[in-house]
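#struct-queue
[09:14] JT: dropping the first one here, sequence first, then the structure tokens:
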Amino acid sequence: MKIQNRFRRKLLKSGLGVAVAPWLLHDASAQSGIRIRQEWQQFKLTTHYQSFRNAIASMRANTNPASRGSLQFWTNVHVNHCPHGAPYFISWHRGYLYYFEQQLRIASGDPDLNLPYWDYYSYATIPAEFTDPSPTNPLYVPRMSANVYHALNLLPFAANVHNFQQGTSNAFEPKIEDVHNPVHDLIGGVMTTMQSPLDPIFYLHHGSVDRLTHAWALPDGKGIPLSAFPYSSTNSHPYWAGNNVYASDLSIERYRTLDPNWIGIDYANTNVPITLPPVPATLRTQTSRLAPSLDLAARQRPPFRSLPTARRRRISEFRRSLGGFSQVAFDEQSVSVRLRVDKTDAAEVGRVVAARRGGSEWETGTRIGKIKVVIDRASASELAAQGGFFYALYLNMPALSESSASEQSFIGTLGAFQIAAASHHGPAKLEYDVSDLLAQQKITDFSELSLSWIRIDGDKPPAGKAIQVAEARIDLAFEEKPTKAALLVKPENWYRRRE
């Protein structure tokens, strides 16, 4: 019996299998092996292209949000359950695409339809089939930008990125989010909101993120925590325990999302990008008004500006602010600000950084020290909420930085999508762990730190104040040490092996 058949039989015997068995009946072609997802430019030349259009048209026309045949159902799943800037961002979305793909087959009547992906590292402009505003085109929705070139960088694929999940140093998951997020920001429209699955390009974007994750992990899984197939508490990392939830009657065991092969999926191209794509023609003619790309090539630090300061204070028992700035308005200007740090605080920052440089953590009791840049209570203006821009954030940016120096000062990004993701369950508060950055910078005097943000625009950026932040600050946080998992030896070829 083939592995795929044994895998499906186990699934059908499980509680999950009972919930999704009707879906699997429409997945007959997968019994013979792994399904291959194609890049859009190849996919659109196949007979499945029309199936995809028909499926999206049907799901957009279905206005019943309780129906899995409705695009609104899948949008509500995203609103209610998706993690962003949190553990399981990759795992959760991998399962989400898996179930959505099966609904595409049901809606189209094509049992061999696989979800395509958009390789924006090869061409950074949204495929023309999605930008045709014809009323008969089910792939079109209004957007702010057709290209995402300025969102792209190669940091997730750097040689030192070995760990996988949020909360670990030099980890892939948070770094790929710093590509994922500004893609949402620049495209704009509904893509800057938690309702982003209403835009059909959403699914090709997440297909790209999933493919890039798999390409990065090959051939040996890198630092992805080990799991047996199926998960066992005796020979698997606890990271993979439990389920990813999509609805009250729809979930997937997390371990199954470790490798796309484990859910019967692979990609036509499994190479990581080593260069950025060609600059789109529209950008070549508009460079006079567009901000620099996020390719981290040589760039100039923005001028320093004086802003109202926020006082140094204790935030909670295990966190205190080292100081910052209040009522910060982010507009079309790129800005740098200086933060002077109390002598005692600077010494503690030094202890955190020294421990990181030595390959460990600064521990106090059961907690470890971390340095966080915090964007607290952020909101986007009504116009800016439509996207078309974002800000690249830097810590201690050199006056004129070459690529390597930019990489060692790049914190992450801030835009309308990040604010929407952080605020759909409460006030928007974004945190960026900069402990590794400070360790890489090799500085020893922490009595003065600087923050810089560079405005990066798409085709139709908003004018005026785009984002208002109640407080931008730097915190010293003491977080609980993660429970140390038992040392598990990874068998040879474990990443692609399911039995």
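[09:21] JT: and here's the second one, same format:
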Amino acid sequence: MPPRSIRREIGKAVAESGAAYAVTQYEHFKAQRSDEFRFAEEDLNILGYELLWAGRVDDAVAIHRLNAKEYPNSANVYDSYGDALFARGDSLAALENFESALALDASLSETKKKIDAIESALPNSG
């Protein structure tokens, strides 16, 4: 059988015990049971957005932070992490992540719009 997506297991861990526990579980599964699961950027990204849409913003931030740690060369990961941080009200951290995304992929026009919107809302912005 092909490996299962890690998303379901980590999503269940978040629901039952919170994101900190889920991150610990992810690390355990990756170290001890990596043949059973597919560890893919998109699985964590989808889970992060599902949590965000469910109003579990802090959990979403934690999952997107994990994804950024796991996939530091992905522009999409930083853009998504920025979305979660922005939803939490942390505009400056969101801006940093959007800028990281744009640095990795300059073609992200929606990310550029997010950067421009945050920068224009900052005090002393021109």
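[09:30] RK: nice, looked through the second one.
[09:31] RK: The first helix runs from residue 6 to 17.
[09:31] JT: good to know. The chain has seven helices and two strands.
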